[in-house]
Amino acid sequence: MNWNQLLSSKRTGETDSQKIIHDRTQFQRDYDRLIFSSPFRRMQDKTQVFPLPGSIFVHNRLTHSLEVASVGRSLGNNISRFLSENNITQNPLVKELGSVTAAACLAHDMGNPPFGHSGEKAISLFFKSGEGERYKNLINNESVWDDFTDFEGNANALRLLTHQFAGRRRGGFNLTYTTVASIVKYPYASGTPERKKYGYFQPEHQTWQQIVNELGIRKISDKPEIYARHPLVYLVEAADDICYHLMDIEDAHKLGILSTETTRHHFMQFFDADSEKKSLDYIHSICNEVTDANEQIAFLRALVIGKLVDACSEVFRENHEQILQGEFSGSLIGKLSGTLATAMKACEKTGFETIYKHPSVVEIEIAGFKILGTLLREFCHAVMHPDDYYAKLLLPFIPQQYRVADNAPVPQKLQTVLDFISGMTDVYALNLYRKINGMGLSDKR
């Protein structure tokens, strides 16, 4: 793969005759287009980890994505300088690596359903072992059925960004191919053997083919069809890893799940006592001045993010050739060593053993299963039996952009329900659940 081809301003669904000259760069336009979109705004009411809303502000999908974009921009700028200073490419778009990485970071979670990762599980299990299993015999394609029984937010993001929904423009968001490719962490389809996750649903196979052909992304395997990652995926993934591991620790501190001492210890572990004495002296002087515990933690977290950005950028530079050959495996964070690797693993362990098992987090998972399971049952039945009296009451809730004809194939009918439900906010899903269950109706006549 080469950067001259990997960085492209071509847009999904756009022809050459539609190109317009703008003052903003193409990748800045991607960023702005995402920021102003309704699906992006809806992430402000989608769970990241902890329940929403609350008296103490913690991260939701929107604030998480904005922070990931900030870190991603720093990583992209670092690699832009590396490529320019070493004359690796003459592509003028290399100056915009910070912008395109930031744009991809904004979009990376847009396909996630309500209630966090438990929402993905709820959808999958509804079709795999719940009431939705009845539709399996109506879908003759095993790979298409995998789209439902192993619902993947990453693949749903690609669909959301590129699919032409009813009454909408061709090419979805009309983002550049480079921005779209930069969010595809798993460059293969659903149902790929021995792969836990995947990057696109079966209906988006042609879209993915257009992207890889345009950008010259290397094919690693024919059967099954697997491609290399676009190099910028590693930067987006690193920005996401850095933010969610560190910010979950900070949020847990604000909520009293982790003590100030424990949280401070986690962040201080990223500094080596022998080789970073000056940095530690500086940290101690600031912490003596700033006595507010939350501000101390925020200060330490900011320093750690800076260290991790530099370290991940160095890993990328050291493995640049392997990345371009499609031979680099794992993540940039996974290649850290020494103090940084030890500290990051400690944060991950605390996340899995303490934070994600906290009752407030588990309650969201339970609620998500109940709410989404009910919505899936009712709306799947409605689209499959549109002439039923009850179906006629439910179907108007589905926005026009997701509608399909009554005689559409079964996979399209079920997919329209997933498009509708996965785009909901937590609060909207809860309110709709209450409405269709007759909860909260006034006793006044």
UniProtKB/TrEMBL annotation:
Coiled coil: none
Taxonomic path: Bacteria, Pseudomonadati, Bacteroidota, Bacteroidia, Marinilabiliales
GO MF assignments: dGTPase activity
Keyword entries, A-Z: Hydrolase
The name this protein goes by in its record: dGTPase
BP terms from Gene Ontology: dGTP catabolic process
Organism: Alkalitalea saponilacus
Domain annotation HD/PDEase: ranges: 57-254
Pfam families, per database record: HD, HD_assoc
CDD domains in the record: HDc (cd00077)
